[in-house]
Amino acid sequence: MNYGKMMNMDLKQGETPLIIAGPCSIESEPQILATARALARIPEVKMLRGGIWKPRTRPDAFEGRGEEGLVWLREAKQESGLPTITEVATPNHVELALHYGVDALWIGARTVVNPFSVQQLADALKGVDVPVFIKNPVSPDLRLWVGAFERFRKAGLKRLSAIHRGFSYYKESPYRNFPLWEIPIELTRQLGVPLITDVSHICGNRELLLPTAQKALDLATDGLMIECHINPDEALTDGKQQITPVQLNDLIGSLIFRSKQSSGVARDLAELRGEIDDIDGELLQLLARRMEVSAQIGEYKKQNNVTVVQMDRWKKILADHIETGNDLGLPSELITEVFEAIHQASVERQSRIMENG
Ligand code: PEP
Ligand code: MN
C-alpha cells in the first residue's frame, strides 16, 4: 500500500492541488481494477473516486452496483494504494461505505438540495472522523450549500471540503452545469474550507475539460475531480465527459500549476494591489456621487409627477455604455451586469423618495 498517497488525503489550503480521478460509476470488477491500476501510475492522482449508488433522472437507468461495487472498490484500493471516495445519499450508504473501508465520502448535488437528507447524513456520521466532501446544490443557492456545512460541523465533523460541480442555470451555455465561479469563491471566503473543482460535471464533455481545469487552478482551487474510465465510450453513465487514464495524464501534463504563495513576486504584486485598491476607492467615490445625483433626480421626478423608470432613457444609457465600454476593451456582459446593478440601486433609491411623503 502506498502510504505516501494516503497521507495526502487530508486537504489543506495552499498545497499542491489534490487530484481525484476515477469512473463516474463502478460498473464491474475488471473496469474499476483496470482504471485504478492505470491511475496509480499518474503521480498527481491522489485519490480514486467511483460511484456506487447513482442518482438518475429516469427510473430505468443504471443506478449503480451497490454493495458488490464496494467489494471491488476495496480491492482497487488495495491494488493501487489510492485512498477511495464515493457518494453517499442515505444513512445506509454511510454504514456500508464505512464498513467496506471507503476513506472519504462525498455528498452529491441532488442530496445537498434537501436539508432533511443532509441532516440524516450528518446524524449518521456523528462521532466518525472521516473526510466529507460536500458538493454544491444543483441550484445556485449559496446559503443552502453553507447550511450543509453547518449541519456537518454541528455533528462534530472537522475534515470538510467543498466540491464545485456547477449549477443548473437558465442561460444557454456550452457547459452541462454553469460554473458561476463567484459562488464557490464566496463559499471559501465565508467558511475557509478547501475547494475541489469537479470539472467533469461542470463541462459535460471532454473538450472543455482542459480550459476549465486551468481556469479552476488559476482561481486557486485546491484540487480537481475528473471522471476517468478505462473505456469511456462504453461507460454506463456520463460517457461523454469521461476520459481515459492516458488522456488524463496528458491533460495534467498540459496544466500550468501556479503558486498560491506570492512571496517571490511580493513587491511587484504589492504595488499592483495598491493600484487596484486606489482604483476601487475612486470607483466607490464615483458610485456615491452618482447615487447622490440620482437622488436629486428622484426629488425632481416626485415634484413633477414623473415615473421613476424611464425605459427609453435606460435602454439608451445601456446601449451607449456598451458601445463606449467595448471601445475601451470591456466585454458587453460586464458592462451590462455592472450597469444593471447600478440602475437597479438607483431605481430603488428613487422609489423610496417617492414613497416617503
Ligand atoms: C457524480 O459525481 O458522479 C455525481 C453524480 O455528481 P453530482 O452530484 O455532482 O451530479
Ligand atoms: Mn458522473
Short description:
This protein is α/β, with parallel strands linked by helices and 357 residues long.
> What is the helical fraction, as a range of percent?
40-55%
**CATH homologous superfamily (4th level) name of the largest domain:** Aldolase class I
Strand content: 5-15%
The sequence of SSEs as H and E is HEHEHEHEHHEHEHEHHEHHHH
How are the strands ordered across the major sheet? 1-2-3-4-5-6-7-8
And the CATH topology of the largest domain?
A: TIM Barrel
What would the average pLDDT be, to the nearest integer? 93
**Approximate shape:** elongated
Low-confidence stretches: 1-8
Number of strands: 8
CATH architecture call of the largest domain: Alpha-Beta Barrel
Q: Structural class from helices and strands?
A: alpha/beta
Unique bound compounds: phosphoenolpyruvate, manganese (II) ion
Oligomer: single chain
Please state the CA-atom Rg, rounded to the nearest Å: 24 Å
What separation lies between the terminal Cα atoms? 76 Å
Count of domains: 2
For this structure, what is the CATH class of the largest domain? Alpha Beta
For the biggest sheet, the summary is: 8 strands, parallel, barrel
